[in-house]
Write a structure and sequence with these properties.
Largest sheet of chain B: 6 strands, mixed
Number of helices of chain A: 0
Helix content of chain A: under 10%
Radius of gyration of chain B: 13 Å
Order of helices and strands of chain A: EEEEEEEEEEE
Radius of gyration of chain A: 13 Å
Number of strands of chain B: 11
Structural class of chain B: mainly beta
Oligomer: heterodimer
Largest interface: A-B, 23 and 25 residues
Shape of chain B: globular
Shape of chain A: globular
Order of helices and strands of chain B: EEEEEEEEEEE
Number of helices of chain B: 0
Helix content of chain B: under 10%
């Protein structure tokens, strides 16, 4: 089925460890986004990309890096995980600005 | 203060009731999304609208640009409608950044 796929779905990290979350979409969308969702807060934009090879910071980028080497993939990296990065992470993609967004199923990350 | 406010925060209804969830925003927008998130699940886009009204099955979304307000209505509610409903707006001149409300937790009891 077409859509946005995130891997992994769950992960537990120790403080200081690194990891990469993968987001893949097969809809040929230009725009891709990484959000985090925390209790009592709305989703917040971490980083986004407006096309292959481009990335930009969102509202909460500190502690994260991203790459978009291929149009269909958007990677989110944590170089040195901290407990404050415990969250549910969602990837989304859209064809163009102002069109409907498609979300992945989320990645639940716990940093201990 | 969040630029996108939703009300109520929690809503409990009996099966068959008519449901209204409200979303207000503080500045002009170019588009507004209504999203649905089931417990432990992913996020599904229900509607995107910039004016007027849209309908899909038992769901209706309306927006009043002058009043900076949108509503999501569910007719003949069913327990499977139980979920968190989130509104998200492309605020002001932003052409990429969605600003999200905190969500409304809807529980429909049989």
């Amino acid at each position: 089925n077409a859509g946005v796929t995130q891997t992994p779905k769950f992960r537990v990290l120790k403080t200081g460890q690194s990891m990469t979350l993968l987001c893949a979409q097969d809809m040929n969308h230009e725009y891709m986004y990484w959000y985090r969702q925390d209790p009592g807060m709305g989703l917040r934009l971490i980083h986004y990309s407006v096309g292959e090879g481009t990335t930009a910071k969102g509202e909460v980028p500190d502690g994260y890096n991203v790459s978009r080497l291929k149009k269909q993939n958007f990677l989110l990296g944590l170089e040195s995980a901290a407990p404050s990065q415990t969250s549910v992470y969602f990837c989304a993609s859209s064809y163009m600005i102002g069109t409907g967004a498609f979300f992945g199923q989320g990645t639940r990350l716990t940093v201990v | 203060k969040n630029e996108v406010e939703q009300s109520p925060q929690n809503l409990t209804a009996q099966e068959g009731e008519f449901i209204t969830i409200n979303c207000s925003y503080s500045v002009g927008i170019s588009a507004l999304h209504w999203l649905q998130q089931h417990p432990g699940g992913g996020i599904v886009s229900l509607f995107m609208l910039s004016s007027g009204k849209k309908k899909h099955g038992r769901l209706i979304a309306t927006i009043n640009i002058q009043e900076k307000h949108s509503s999501l209505h569910i007719t003949a509610s069913h327990p499977r409608d139980s979920a968190v409903y989130i509104c998200a707006a492309l605020l002001g001149g932003s052409n990429y950044k969605l600003t999200f409300g905190k969500g409304t937790l809807l529980t429909v009891n049989p």
